[in-house]
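Record type: ASSEMBLY
Status: queued
Input:
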Amino acid sequence: MPDIAGATPRIARAGYKDWGRCDLTFVELSAGTTVAGVTTRNLCCSSEVELCRENLKGGKARALVVNAGNSNAFTGYRGREAVEAITAKVAVHLGCPKSEIFVSSTGVIGVPLPKDKAETGLDSAFTAHPCNWEEATNTIGTTDTFAKGATASAIVDGRKVHLTGIIKGSGMIAPDMATMLGYIFTDAAVDAAFLQQLLSASNQTSFSCITVDSDTSTSDTVLAFATGKADNAPLSSFKDTGADAFASALNDICRQLAHLVVRDGEGAQKFIQISVIGAVSDDSARRVGLAIANSPLVKTAIAGEDANWGRVVMAVGKAGEPADRDKLSISFGTTIVARDGLPVDGYDETPVTAHLQGQDIEIGVDLGLGDGRATVWTCDLTHAYISINADYRS
Amino acid sequence: MPDIAGATPRIARAGYKDWGRCDLTFVELSAGTTVAGVTTRNLCCSSEVELCRENLKGGKARALVVNAGNSNAFTGYRGREAVEAITAKVAVHLGCPKSEIFVSSTGVIGVPLPKDKAETGLDSAFTAHPCNWEEATNTIGTTDTFAKGATASAIVDGRKVHLTGIIKGSGMIAPDMATMLGYIFTDAAVDAAFLQQLLSASNQTSFSCITVDSDTSTSDTVLAFATGKADNAPLSSFKDTGADAFASALNDICRQLAHLVVRDGEGAQKFIQISVIGAVSDDSARRVGLAIANSPLVKTAIAGEDANWGRVVMAVGKAGEPADRDKLSISFGTTIVARDGLPVDGYDETPVTAHLQGQDIEIGVDLGLGDGRATVWTCDLTHAYISINADYRS
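Status: finished
Output:
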């Protein structure tokens, strides 16, 4: 992953858990960096999420701190104190307002983040040699099994601008406006308000369209930072030259990052794409898609490579969205299995079974009602998910 | 389970699957039997469910036929033909209108119920010796691991009336108005409209408060039949003597049956009761309770006997119902683990861990907002659920 001028990552060991690895990431951002973000809708969100929301109003960022191994969620005033200690210390170090420091934490819920460990970790990070993005990605991860990053680029105002994204997340993934922890850094110059507009739009077709287990994290945050070091004329609307290209690159990187989370879903063996068309609206299509993607019975059938398409019918019917059983069509891969409310004549399961034996599974649903469409992504539900989660905290 | 005068069960082998067991249940009901019912809200419901809804309007029943091993759902006109063949044949046998015959089927979705097997099965059933309720319960079951029945009684109009209920269901359990297949037979005389009122009310705090896997069956149906053979003055409102006692007995049997389904939830090792108080309304409390009960992360933590109460916080926050993180309290068993938005001072996990090692788990949530309350029931999510569902159809 390429360096991004104006964004310098460093890592350190705060020792939030007894795991002998780096667990604190500190990214210094050059003066003038703009920021946009989307955060979880979970009502029991962490102090970190509340701080991000507050600081996003200013649109400026000088640093990002990410703690791994402890989410600091549901820790009341003690959690807030830890976050305030971190922002105060970084603000002094950089000589900037506290409102330009962004903090995220993930890991166990309900244990206050130890303030002293955070402070010691920051002291180490301040003096550490800059690291590369892969090291930063490994450091923000928790139950992730591989480092998840993506890159994109665009030509804006005659200059090539770069985007680098890193993300963590594997379980408790059912984003609603946002997802796990994801960070996108670009050297493009983009006004904060326009960056927010683009990020919110990209989020709708990426992070908001993935689910691993239907559970929504208390810490979900996606932030985009634009350092402006590419020296393009700052983008402030779609009328600006290169705005479309930048928007497209941002959209691309968000989708890449979202897919990586699903591919690393806890216990996942298969990547499942669910395309819904013919719904009464795009939103309705997305909700039908997520009802299928969250159905334990659909997910276990695919884990078992079983062409049990009746479970897709069930999930469509329980979604609570407009649907007409007798107009419904369903396909697996390129094979239509049911059309207009009953199995197709002479249905041959052979190609469907072959498709299910692969790793990339496609389910198509046509509701036959309107023009609404959406694509969502999920993974299968396996024994490994149970193993990971029946003793994760221990 | 005691006999119910006026309700005579018989069983036969229709051979819907190659499994060498009885799979067709035929219950003959005496003339004058009233009926009430609740059915699934799944929009892709089976022809059987549509027939039940239609026939419930008449309020009279002379027979119930239950097929096991094939749900006949999503089978279009071929499914309807099979149901019509069954009702026609039974109506001729009993000399009654087709509108007094009720049919249910569960099993695989998307395979038309073979009409010829149903007809041959009925011929056997018509001439079979009456069976007992336990045999009937075993015959309506599919993935159920034990026969699920319950009994209750009440004094109505100076006479003892009896209620016997049988139920099947283990997976695809997230009833919304109804659940799996459940049948309650009573010798009490109850007007159909009043029976419906009582059944709908009982359903709200029993079948509508259980979930195994968040998936709602396309075949869910609960029917209550009152033969009137106890010769009490027919109950038609709460003003009638004994109406309260009968309502209480019906409520009791519905709750017993609902609990049995959860105890036999696919792969279940533990029975989990979730009590939510302090919500803005009873409905809101029920939805918060079901969000907890449907969370894979809560259910796997309990399977692992891990006191990971932070996952309960997460589930409360994602429920989409009014909640205030800083007013929330959570208990496991009799131990309060968190209060007012953070862990209790000096929290000792020992009694919680001991509680989780038992088979009956209690989770208490106080939202601290109002007087709304609800209790819901579920089971843990284990490796056995994955094993059962990754190759159920095969």
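Annotation: Chain B has a mean pLDDT of 94.
Annotation: The domain at 7-263 of chain B is CATH 3.60.70.12 (L-amino peptidase D-ALA esterase/amidase).
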